[in-house]
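Table S7 (text form). Paired inputs.
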Amino acid sequence: MKVDLHCHSHFSDGKHSPEFLLSRADHNQLTHLAITDHDYVAFPLTENNSSVNLIPGVEISCLWEEVEIHVVGLLIDPANQPLQDLLLTQQQKRQHRIAKIDQLLKELEMTGLWRHLEELNCTSYTRSHVADFLVEKGLCKNRKRAFGTYLGRRGKLYIEPHWCGITDAVKAINDSGGIAVLAHPGRYPLGKNKLRRLLTEFSECGGEALEVCYANIDRSTRDRLSRLCLSFELWASMGSDFHDSSAHWTDVGKFPVLPELLLNTAIWLHPKWLTGN
């Protein structure tokens, strides 16, 4: 098994098409790939001549105790109506947030954001798209500065998100036949006790897996997440969170290997995976 269960296409904040991601997975000799766009299902592809097994997936943005966290859904049914209803609501919330940011930009005498967005082959808009617009207009030299000065919590263009709760996201994933995975848990601004509370709530509402391996994770964090994965009896998932081939430190399928102590709880041993693949 060689898998990547978390990556993004241009339908959300990735730079490439689903077909490009699949070709990279093929080139890197992956057996399974999940394209998990933000609040949008980029599946199925019009053509799939690859030997890679394509797993239908999504990444849903949620709010938990005023912290934005992400839940990945794997092996979902893309046609499931309650899931599609939730994702449509999420996309509408994204558009409303962008509209409010656009209004703040106009107060700074900067126009053209919507025209910039409409030129993209995108369905689910994110703040990263706004950051690219700010860089293109010369207001910031890079995305990091755009978030630090304008789009981050203390920035001039910051608008509070109003995402769904964890319970809603997990229920939609489970009801569509999928597996709910807490994405990149080491990246949230949570202390040890608060992370355990998050995992408790995630597990109690039906979350089944934890992403323990992802790009740029350090060994100590991976080991800590591995222990939590076992402690909460969750399945172990993994993915590159790949967005852009111009970032040479990342690639489809590029992330640390699953620790040996989790091999018996790897997500591909989940009953839903075994019956669906």
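Next pair, protein 2 of 2.
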Amino acid sequence: MLEEQAFDPELHDRADFSCGVPALDEYFHRFAAQHGRKGVSTVFVLVDSASPRLVLGYYTLSAAQVDVTQLSEADRKKLPRFPVPCFRMGRLACWADRHGQGLGKLLIACAVDRCLHARRQIAAFALIVDAKDDDAQAFYRHYGFTPCADAPLTLYLPLASDR
């Protein structure tokens, strides 16, 4: 059974993780644990409960804000005229051998669920992502993310249910 867990460098094997994107692999191998300790980002991993050391994918979350002028007109109308708080999913990666099996969709769902739970205690308007390229942008758009006005590779997904 697949499950999301907080990344534990003592438990989860990161040395063999490979998603096929060198920058995402290097981040997980070299910086994930350090960024977690320093409070820069929190890493969550997807594992099979039968093999919990093997990381099938990961994503990171951190605090963020977005200038209201970057949002769609419909979203801007409902918000104050200053930067609004958000969550940022800075990285998302899946094991290269598992591409096309829905793990990315599952990781996004886990991130959104985690943000919705956190939103009960800490205000945040949306989940922001930084797409690495046009293919990644298309992936996020497929799941309902909207590009920011001046930075189309930065996308957001409102978390409010009253849209």
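Helices lie at 22-38, 73-76, 103-118, 134-142.
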